[in-house]
Structures are given as C-alpha cells and as structure tokens.
Amino acid sequence: MNDKPPTSGGDRPEQDRPEVPGSGREGLSPVPAPQDKAAPQDPDTMDEVTDGTSADGAPEIYSVEKNIDLTGKSYSQGQLVRRRFFRHRGAMVSLVALLAITVFAFTSIGYGVIPGWWGKNFWEGALVENMGRPTLQLWPFEPGEYPFGQDNAGKDYFALTMRGTQRSLIVAFTVGILSTIIGTLVGALAGYYRGWVEAILMRVTDLFIVIPLLVMAAVFGKMAGGGIWPLAFLLSVLTWTGLARLVRGEVLSLREREFVAAAEAIGTSSSRIIFKHILPNTIGTIIVSATLAIAATILLESALSFLGWGVRPPDTSLGLLISTYQNSFQTRPWLFWWPGMIILAIALSVNFLGDGLRDAFDPRQNRTAD
Fold it and tell me: Where are the transmembrane segments (predicted)?
C-alpha cells in the first residue's frame, strides 16, 4: 500500500512543480515547453510569434506592433467640446436663427454710415396705404412695398422693427459681455484670496442681490436718459451677481487641487494662477452663464422700454415698439406681433445655445456620442 500522499499537479513534470521553501531548489526554472524553445529570444522581436507558414513555406512571423490599430484619432478637450456642441441639433438651429436675425437687422437698414440694402428708413413717414396692412406674401414669396405694414405716421414698420432689433441686440450683448467680466473677476478674487477679500466682495454681492432687479434697473434706466450705451453700461452693474457666486464656488474647489499647490510651490504669482490655471477650468460655467445673461437682458431691456425707462423716442427698441402700439392689438395686431415674435425668437435661440454649451462642456452628458 502506497502511503505517500498524492501530490498536486497531476502529470506535471517534477521540476515544474512548486518547491517547498527550504528544500534548496527554490528559484529553479521549469523545463521549457517545446513551443517556448522555438520562441525567438531577440529583445527586438520578442513580441513576434509564428502564425502558420507563408506562401514560400517559411514560417510567417506575426508582429503585435504591426497589427496595432494606429488609425484611432485622439481629441483634445477643445475638440471634444466642439464635437458635442456641433452635434447638438437644438443649439445648431438656434445658432443659425440668431445669426440670421442679427445679420438681417444690421444689413437691411445699415448701421451708422454703412448703408443697407432696404430702400426705406425708419424715420420718414408716408401716406398710409390699405390701413397699413403688411404686404408680405409667403407663397409665392413676395415682400411687397411694406412687408411688415405701416405705423400710424406711415413709417415703414419693417425698418422700425429692424432698428429696434439692432438696439435690443446691442444692449443685450454689451450687458452680457460686461456683466460676465465683472462677475468672473469678483468671483475669482473672492474664491482665491478668501478671508477679508471674500467677505467684502460677497457682502457687496449680497447687497445687489437683495434689491429687486427691476427697481434698480428702472432707476439706472432713468439715469441713462434713454441713451443706448449708458443704459447698457448701467445694466451691466446689476446683472453680474449670479455669475460671481458660481465662479466663487468653482474657484474655492479648484484652489485646493494639486496643480494649484504645485504652482504656488514654485513661486507662481497669484494673478497667473488665477488667470492661467484656475479660470480656464471654469470656462464652461462662464460661457453658459453669459448666454443666459444675454437672454435675460433682452427681456429686461424690453420690460424697461415698455415701462418708459429704457430706450426713448426718437430712437426705438423692440420693447418700446410693443409699448407704443399695445393699444393697436385688437385693430392692427401686426404692430404688436412683429416685435414680440422677434423678442421671443432671440430669447429662445440664446437659451437653446446655452443649453447646447452646457451639454458640450459637461463630460457627464451622454446625449451625443464622441
């Protein structure tokens, strides 16, 4: 009777079995298999193995390096953002619509000394024809002499609407850009320096937040005296608070990261850390907030002009046109609908653009594949 306990490993060669520590045979290499002996030992060709025979009967060498797929293209962060944004259908339609409205408004009646292609202006009246009804015909397309109709004084309402669109767009984009700059600077300084700097800046921000926006905008609109540029600059002072709080929160998180600590360790100045290292990582939040600020400013300017505290005659804006002809809604509704529809189109386009930018900058969004 064989009392020797069975060894693990089955029919494995004795020298290929694991050795017991202390037996003196530790570290011995197992007997190589025949296929291991045939494997090439050249370090430059160790990733190559035979894979059948070639046409002339010689062993065919299979190279891992030669069969790696090197056609896959890698993308930078900016390229990934662009790809996501351009694949967002709503953002693309909104971008085309906003560009079309902007180009149409500034090229039709011209701007400043630059003439436009439309033959009428917004300040000269004429004889009211057919009760001032629009002559626009969609099918077959025919604009006619007065496509948007005429107002009470016989002015071309298309030219008036394009002038109002120009002024509203100028105010909206000026306020959007300036308020973004102010909010970004305040939020970045408060979040990075903290301490008494943050306390002062945030208390000022809270002061602007607690005062009703429309009330402050009405006061500032009265101070602007109806001028388009003073109104834009004064409204910029009121609409930066939301972005400042958002940027402050982002900077508070980013300043604790390792790359900021490394930059401080090598003596990088605070301004360079803020503008070169921290703010580029908040660009998504900043851009999305800027687009939303533009949409909100369009509605704010329209409300102020409607109440008589924004743009004033002889100039005009979309809100002022609605305010002037609000009593004509029942008898001549086109005087109310044309500026109203353009305000709605601009606000929706900018909001959808902001939605597309948010999805593009947020890597957690899975609406579109990269």
Answer: 92-114, 169-193, 200-221, 227-247, 278-300, 335-354
